[in-house]
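for the recovery benchmark. tokens below, seq after
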């Protein structure tokens, strides 16, 4: 089974549905939510609290990783809407926010060093349930996104769909709690946190486990 490292290290490649790697990943129609490393899972009702305790995540400089897997509906695409924020006053922690050109971006820092990456442009729209998985792998120091069951590969807009982060970046555990959708114009329906990187096939299977609703 292909994992996200297989998909990334090949560099520029053919785009679109004829890409054999992309085709193989999309053919994995698993129906079960990945359980290994799942340290927090909140449904729509539980997300109404506005904040929750942040589970501990491994140090990225030592090769650890994490994944944030969520489903949401946007009312508009204005940049700067915060979906998830665990940062403390020193900037240690993780933030997911809506970016420009219909994107979502993850930024994370240890209080000294900050890195981040966004999904491919123009993948998000209004009034549609989107399934978003942000995957941070401290082994090769790479960030990837899987949007609605499709691995971001750069499309026609970027050479790559993945980004590297600073190898010195370490503890991103932040304030010990996180704010839920503090400035989101829309609705967060599901949120999961994993204390490891998800394989791309696992992120795709999580998407298919929910169907289209």
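predicted aa per position
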């Amino acid at each position: 089974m292909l994992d996200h490292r297989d998909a990334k290290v090949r560099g520029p490649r053919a785009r679109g549905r004829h890409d054999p790697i992309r085709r193989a990943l999309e053919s994995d129609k698993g129906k079960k939510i990945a359980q290994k490393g799942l340290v927090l899972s909140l449904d729509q009702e539980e997300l109404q609290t506005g904040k929750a305790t942040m589970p501990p995540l491994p140090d990225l400089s030592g090769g650890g990783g994490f994944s944030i897997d969520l489903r949401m509906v946007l009312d508009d695409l204005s940049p700067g809407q915060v979906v998830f924020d665990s940062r403390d006053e020193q900037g240690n922690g993780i933030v997911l926010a809506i970016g420009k050109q219909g994107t979502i971006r993850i930024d994370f820092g240890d209080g000294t060093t900050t890195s981040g990456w966004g999904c491919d442009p123009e993948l998000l729209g209004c009034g549609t349930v989107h399934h978003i998985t942000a995957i941070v792998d401290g082994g090769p120091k790479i960030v990837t996104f899987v949007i609605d069951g499709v691995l971001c590969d750069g499309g026609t807009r970027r050479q790559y769909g993945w980004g590297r982060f600073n190898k010195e970046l370490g503890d991103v555990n932040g304030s010990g709690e996180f704010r839920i959708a503090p400035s989101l114009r829309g609705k967060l329906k599901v949120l999961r946190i994993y204390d490891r990187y998800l394989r791309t096939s696992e992120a795709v299977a999580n998407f298919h486990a929910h169907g289209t609703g």
